[in-house]
């Protein structure tokens, strides 16, 4: 588990409907940070069906989902749960905080 928060971007650089990716500086985990209607969410940037980055997929702000381009698995950006086959397991969800005018996240898994 990383106790070190990773800087994502300035708070004004991640607008509703947009996403950014970073790597947790301690664990090396790729993290996808999404802005859904002004609320920020962070997920591991890896489809639970197959090891492929979710950030290359389509983020649909209307239904708060992201779709993996590889096989069409969709995930709820708010909690990481799988919404359809071929994915059945959720993707890891991480904390996000706004501090010092920036967006920060970290891999908080044990």
From TrEMBL:
This protein's record includes keyword Secreted: no
Signal peptide boundaries: none
PANTHER family, sorted: 3-PHENYLPROPIONATE_CINNAMIC ACID DIOXYGENASE FERREDOXIN SUBUNIT, FERREDOXIN-RELATED
Upper taxonomic lineage: Bacteria, Pseudomonadati, Pseudomonadota, Gammaproteobacteria, Lysobacterales
Record keywords: 2Fe-2S, Iron, Iron-sulfur, Metal-binding
Name assigned to this protein: Non-heme iron oxygenase ferredoxin subunit
Chain ranges of the Rieske domain: 6-105
Keyword Metal-binding attributed: yes
